[in-house]
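Notebook, student rotation project (T.W.).
Task set for the rotation: take a protein with a known small-molecule partner, predict the structure of the complex, and write up what can be learned from the model alone. Partner molecule chosen: glyceraldehyde-3-phosphate. Sequence and SMILES entered below by T.W., checked by me.
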Amino acid sequence: MLNNHAPNARNPIHPYDEGLVQSLSIEEGEVANAVAALGEQVSSPARLLKALAVIDLTTLSGDDTPERVKALCAKARQPLKPEVQAKLGAEGVTTAAVCVYHAFIGTALEALKGALPLAVVSAGFPHGLSPLKARILEVEESVAAGATEIDIVIDRSKALTGDWKGVYDEVRAFRQACGEAHMKAIIATGDLGSLGNVAKASVVCMMAGADFIKTSTGKEAVNATPNVALVMAQMIALWLKKTGYKVGFKPAGGISKAKDALVYQAIMQDVLGEEWLEPHLFRIGASSLLGDIVTQLENA
Ligand SMILES: O=C[C@H](O)COP(=O)(O)O
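Predicted structure of the complex:
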């Protein structure tokens, strides 16, 4: 039964439900068939512009510098030259947000000047294995420094040993530490071993109050794939049906071609509908996707 929440009501913390977690199972062959059935995606300036507008433009490298972060923010604020904007009727288009490490919050906030939200990776990113107290403190510090979106990671060892309540407790603590900041929960699908675990991790994070579920850190051996995206989208649909709350989806890691972004768009549209193509419910975390989209829009 759907609750009558406002469209953008934040997903709150829900009680832990082991029965629901254990009831989730995924038929891997059916997922592959459903992805194949989406077929070839046809590119158009409208679809490319929509994809551009959901990018969390990211730099998460060991050699990041304030100069690199400033340049990234400038690109996020004005990804298209004025003449290309005018040609496409896309004046003022920006990416959805910028995503950096905690150390660059000050630099990014100054460069963004409030034009875009700032996302920060946290909670022991990328592996989530530092002491829980330190991970919670990291979230609190990033919020206090001005980040309005916090991308946390789950402790995969808990998921892999079936300690779903342990995953829930930690994610709930991060959600509490986020306060008003929106929380994206990275489940690191490439580390989870099965689509069944992807489904369980997705639902556990939504129970614990995640506003978005995100595939990957970009540091796993396998990052976002259409198959995990389909399962996560199905879990978001299930959550909406069960609770009435709309949770967003963020594929991330290794998405560098416009045609790949269009596949994730198609999955959103197919499983969740048009609303999940917009930045309040869909982001693509990417460090090098923007260039390909811009090139294609310039040549459109
Ligand atoms: O959260 C975003 C990812 O870390 C970006 O990964 P990428 O550098 O492979 O695009």
